[in-house]
Known about the structure:
Elements: E1 2-7, H1 26-29, E2 31-32, E3 35-36, H2 39-49, E4 54-58, H3 69-79, E5 83-88, H4 104-108, H5 120-137, E6 144-147, H6 154-163, E7 167-168, E8 190-192, E9 195-197, E10 202-208, E11 211-216, H7 224-237, E12 243-246, E13 252-254, E14 262-264, H8 266-281, H9 291-295, E15 309-310, H10 313-338
Parallel strand pairs: 1-4, 1-12, 4-5, 5-6, 6-7, 7-9, 10-15
Antiparallel strand pairs: 2-3, 8-9, 10-11, 13-14
Amino acid sequence: MSITVDTEFSIAGAFRDQTVCPVGEQRVWCVSGCKSQGLGYMLDCFAQYGITATFFVEVLNRHYFHRDPMRDIAERLHTAGHDVQLHLHPCWTIFQHEDWRERARVRTKPGIDAFYGRAEDASLKLMEYGLETFHTWGLPAPTVFRSGSLHHDDALYRAQARAGIPYSSHVGVAVFDSGDENYRLYSGRHERHGVIECPILTFRDWKVPGKTHLKSLTITGSNFAETRMLLEQAYREGVEQVVILTHPFEYVHTSDQQMSRTRRHCVNQRRLARLCEFLSENTDRFATDGLSAAAAMPMRAESSRNVLLKGSLLKAVPRMVEQAVYDNYAMWRLKHQEAGTAVDVEACA
């Protein structure tokens, strides 16, 4: 069982609007009310319940943030005992060009952030930059790689094998489906071009006549009742590995891409806390040692069982209602904050 955290900065609309700039640390720490409601909250939660999470740290942002603020974040995660691994968003490479704002191709070139369709050698070059960054930071070389937006194809896996990174977590079928049946991976571990892929768990969210809806398991997209049901089902079905996806910025609401106004996302914070509490109470069934440790376990015949777990419409509907109501409420509160109206601090207990 692996909680994986994509830890990244944001372009924040800079490609479309030349008056704005990318957002760095605030996208990760998500400070609201003089307290970190993003990464800070997550680290406190993991420490309280003894959870080792896997943080996929994005490094290509260094082409814009020359003072390298992600380095301090990565070092803190490593010092806290978490599993620090490699994440890449190719869009950041455009900042290598001093005239990036004037280049029309920034706004029009398709696939600027995609590994899908990218040449194998080009993908390899990006990974080598990531490996060199970890070396510069004095961190252990990453053994697991996750691509930006979960884009993937055969060329990416071949490049990763050449880079010497043995494990990956690129696949989340409900987030990105390449159309290749070879990568319609819902659970388990699977060898592709010499790389062991550990997909984010994808499950059948609900099914009605003529319609089946797939969903990848995330903190922001599933309530605790759904997540617990899927974990229990995975245990009964003998699913070897369950991977959950989250991001630090999911633990706040914000009024704009620049994150000029934020307030903590109490619903998502409660979901994470309840999941961590559940895992801490069930260590006999669910190990949380980080994805790199889980991926490195010897492969068995049952490791590559591609089980599609089943959610429940009865649990999905309350979650959808809760999210819609709470999101609308939070945006109303943020609007009144911007207007200068006094806003009480909301308790998340």
